[in-house]
Design a protein that fits this description.
By secondary structure, the protein is of the alpha+beta class. It is 25% helix and 39% strand. The mean pLDDT is 93.
Length: 163
């Protein structure tokens, strides 16, 4: 059985330039067992055109295109021996922020931060993202209070969905 870290390394290599040629980028990979089943979840995003500032979104056609391509490449590589489900999707409107580049991209956006342990009797905070600075998720709430949460104390940091 291939290890999760090996699969997470192999998927970007298998996708090669395919994503870029199709105006897409790899956002995140997750390979894990859920119950009795194994899931390879690949999250893709549109390459953003910074010149006009308009946000571009992944559609179902993009997901299908990548799913077919990656499925074929995974079969050829015979990397995963056990049965698994391949899921290709957008990271969604409430996307989780995983890496420095995600935090950098969404500075100034409203985020929700969930902590492992309470701070001031709260485990959930919402505020404007100031960034991932020196290993801390930094936000400012609507009252102007600034909070710094060490990344290893954060369960999740997601974009907040505002309607």
């Amino acid at each position: 059985m291939a290890k999760a870290k090996d699969i997470k390394k192999a998927v970007p290599q298998l996708l090669g330039t395919f994503l870029e040629e199709n105006g897409l980028e790899l956002y995140h990979i997750d390979y894990k067992r859920e119950g009795k089943e194994w899931y390879l979840k690949v999250f893709i995003d549109k390459i953003q055109n910074s010149s006009d500032g308009e946000e571009l979104y992944v559609g179902s056609d993009d997901c299908e295109l990548v799913s077919r391509f990656l499925s074929e490449k995974l079969d050829e590589a015979a990397l995963i021996k056990q049965n698994y489900f391949l899921m290709v999707s957008s990271p969604g409107m409430d996307r989780q922020l995983y890496e420095q580049k995600h935090f950098d991209r969404y500075v100034g956006h409203l985020v929700e931060v969930k902590l492992y342990q309470a701070v001031n009797k709260k485990k959930e905070f919402e505020g404007t993202l100031d960034g991932l600075i020196d290993g801390c998720v930094v936000i400012t709430d609507e009252e102007g209070n600034r909070f710094e949460f060490p990344l290893d104390k954060v369960v999740r940091a997601n974009l907040a969905v505002v309607f």
